[in-house]
Amino acid sequence: MKERYSKGVWDSGGGLRGACRRALLFCLAACAVLTACGGGKEAQEVESLRIGVSLYRGDDTFINNIRSELEQKAKEYEQETGVRLHMDIQDAKGSQNTQNNQVERFISLGCDVLCINMVDRTNVSLIIDKAMAAGVPVLFFNRQPVEEDMNRWDQLYYLGVDPKESAVLQGEILVDLYREHPEQVDLNGDGVISYVQLEGESSHQDALIRTEWSVRTMRDNGVPVEKLTGGIANWERSQASALMEQWLEKYPDQIELVISNNDDMALGAIDAMDRAGVRDINLLGIDGTVPGIEAVDSGKLLGTVASDKEEFAEVMLGIAIAKAKGEPLPDGITLEEGKYYWCGQDVVKRDEDKVIKNK
Ligand code: GAL
């Protein structure tokens, strides 16, 4: 079951997303064609654009899903406009040093704009210095630099998914189920829902905010949750699996709920449950990655909060192209404080008939 919810600006009227997305694409295409057909030197110059993209880790499932969408959207844009996009996507493999070198190289190659998924979001000075010196706009995404850094230059932008919104939606999945079927949440019927929590990187804005707000939402709405334990698994399936294995041993038959900061870690917990032959625990994720949605469909995951990857990629390209050309943003993309764009997200829940019955 998929419930539409979105903060994305062009969906504010509800249900208009598809039409507006087409409008946005059309606008991107029309702007490019107009410029390209305009004649003169300027027109020649925009027939190809160079975009440098650096990923904090190419093996991150969510980031990988965004990358696929981005490549797809870039292809569509090229086909529709005839403008050649030289999009160079590099993997920083978790090293800030590598990422800094990638940025230097992008700039020396003459990139018109940079899209950076920071390895260390608190260590952006060098990248901002280089970009400012070269006059190349930067769109940061998914790993948000602190405000002070973002305010250093008016050519710095951020695209992400509002973590508080994700967490509140995640919490509400449980609240809704508890109100309708408390017995499916309080599995042992003792009036308390004992949970464990899987957290992302400790320095990541999404992890900190999601950890707090999902639980708060449950409590504020009258769900009697009680924490057994929690731990940091850095967004990773294998790390989460190892933690969950320990917790299943330490708290036999006590865990009723796993609240995970992302889908991959929830999937890791499911791996551990499968190994231990445990089935009757509810799990919640965030991201709506391809394997995450599959787990909801198969009934293994109670629900997830899926960010709209297509919107993410399209807005990323929309901002990048406009900034590369020094043009206004396409209709439909409005930046908060002139800098921030928050991508829409949807709740995806397990169907009633997929409920895993207690053994
Ligand atoms: C989060 C996402 C995680 C991971 C992380 C990387 O927003 O939920 O799965 O991809 O970003 O920065």
Features:
359 residues; alpha/beta; Rossmann fold; 6-stranded parallel beta sheet; 4-stranded parallel beta sheet; 12 helices; 45% helix; disordered N terminus; binds beta-D-galactopyranose
What is the average of the pLDDT values? 89
The CATH class assignment of the largest domain is Alpha Beta
Largest sheet: 6 strands, parallel
Shape assignment: elongated
Question: How far apart, in Å, are the first and last alpha carbons?
Answer: 24 Å
Provide the spatial order of strands within the biggest beta sheet.
Answer: 3-2-4-5-6-12
Structural write-up:
It is a single chain. The protein has 12 helices and 13 strands. It is α/β, with parallel strands linked by helices and 359 residues long. It has 2 domains: 181 residues, 3-Layer(aba) Sandwich (Rossmann fold), CATH 3.40.50; 156 residues, 3-Layer(aba) Sandwich (Rossmann fold). The strands form 3 sheets. It has a 6-stranded parallel β-sheet, sandwiched between helices. The protein starts with a strand and ends in a 10-residue tail after the last strand. The N terminus and C terminus are likely disordered. The site of beta-D-galactopyranose has 13 residues, from helix 3.
Write the layout of secondary structure elements.
Elements: E1 2-3, H1 17-37, H2 40-45, E2 48-55, H3 61-81, E3 84-91, H4 96-108, E4 113-116, H5 125-134, E5 138-141, H6 147-150, E6 156-160, H7 163-180, E7 193-199, H8 205-220, E8 225-232, H9 237-250, E9 257-260, H10 263-276, E10 282-284, H11 290-297, E11 303-307, H12 309-325, E12 340-342, E13 345-349
Parallel strand pairs: 2-3, 2-4, 4-5, 5-6, 6-12, 7-8, 7-9, 9-10
Antiparallel strand pairs: 1-13, 11-13
Helix pairs in contact: 1-12, 3-12, 4-5, 7-8, 9-10
Bound molecules: beta-D-galactopyranose.
Beta-D-galactopyranose binds next to helix 3.
